[in-house]
Amino acid sequence: MESSDRTPQHPVPERPVSERSEHDAALPGAGAERTPAGPTSGGPAAAAGQAPGAEQGTGAGETPAAAAPSNPAFHRQPYSFVRRGDRLSPKRQKAWDEHAGEWVLEIPRVMTDTSVDPSYRLDHEAAFGRVAPLVVEIGSGLGEAIVAHAAAHPELDHLAVEVYKPGIADLLMKAAQAGVTNVRVAQANAPEVLEHMLEPGSVHELWVFFPDPWHKTRHHKRRLVSPAFAELAARVLEPGGIWHLATDWQEYAVVMREVLDAAAADFENLHPGPLADDEHPDTGWAPRWEGRILTSFERKATEAGRVPRDLAYRRR
User: Fold this and answer.
1) Residue 175 near residue 145, CB atoms below 8 Å
2) Is 212 a catalytic residue?
3) Among 212, 278, 282, 310, which one carries the catalytic annotation?
4) Which residues are annotated as a binding site?
5) The pTM is what?
6) N or C: which terminus of the chain carries fewer CB neighbours within 10 A?
7) Which residue ranges make up the annotated binding site for S-adenosyl-L-methionine?
8) Are strands 134-138 and 121-122 parallel, antiparallel or unpaired?
9) Which residue from 142, 197, 198 is spatially nearest to 175, judged by alpha carbons?
10) What CA–CA distance (Å, rounded) separates 93 from 81?
11) Which residues belong to the annotated binding site for substrate?
12) How far apart are the first and last CA of the chain?
């Protein structure tokens, strides 16, 4: 998710370290030490995937011999995220220790600690203990939106895709306090989750709320919402499934709409109208989706004078 300070004040690292979220830009410095991306203990989350012929992911900083840089399976596209730090406060550490083993999925890795082994497939029933319509949020941040939705909709299963460990720990804490059991977390690079981990047509709703706009022209290639990402979204959404998007960056909102309108073979814009432009910035947007609670980030964006824009598309 986005933040109020979204331009890295340091060179973009050659080797990606983690995913950007709404909360991590407030933390100083560049990428922190690499940490294991999943729990180390067993539990339902540990048995929730299948990776035929693949070994379990390595620890932080380890590079298995089979995953040399020349490995064609390794995701080499520009990453849309920068991790700011993984140190946990005592309260967050307690939440991680108590709940990560059950709710954070163990995902086999290829090279980095946010990669997804191409042979890995999520076993939905093993992960959640049932089969129910699946809601996936890309960049769940501190977990405010997805935990609130999970509490309001116990009939749905929810998968949070996030790489920032303190944010995941906060999500675990909120989920425990709310008493929800229908949330799981994938600490992984989102495009790889959609390309490898999730089965085709397995997602009921997909959320992308406030992704980093990477507003400098030279960083546009890092934007999450792109034609390639739209293809991955189309792959996992069930027919009739809804893709909800929101951003507080006007130019990126227009780009999002252009990208998805260009994918008309796969998606139907539920609120088409005239195409928004600089002279008519308020046309063609979806009304604010009532299923998205007002998070602390969105409130700060509004206070700063930025206007959140919503988009909603249906999978054909």
Assistant:
1) no
2) yes
3) 212
4) 137, 162, 189, 212, 216, 248, 295-298
5) 0.77
6) C
7) 137, 162, 189, 212
8) unpaired
9) 142
10) 23
11) 216, 248, 295-298
12) 26
Which of these CATH numbers, 3.50.50.60, 3.40.50.150, 3.30.70.360, 3.40.980.10, describes 29-51+76-315? 3.40.50.150
Nearest to 123, CA basis, from 59, 202, 61, 29: 202
Q: How do the pLDDT tens digits run along the chain, 316 residues long?
A: 543 334 333 333 333 333 334 433 333 333 333 333 334 344 556 656 655 444 333 333 333 334 434 454 544 556 555 656 789 999 999 999 999 999 999 999 998 999 999 999 999 999 999 999 999 999 999 999 999 999 999 999 999 999 999 999 999 999 999 999 999 999 999 999 999 999 999 999 999 999 999 989 998 999 999 999 999 999 999 999 999 999 999 999 999 999 999 999 999 999 998 876 677 777 789 999 999 999 988 999 999 999 999 999 999 9
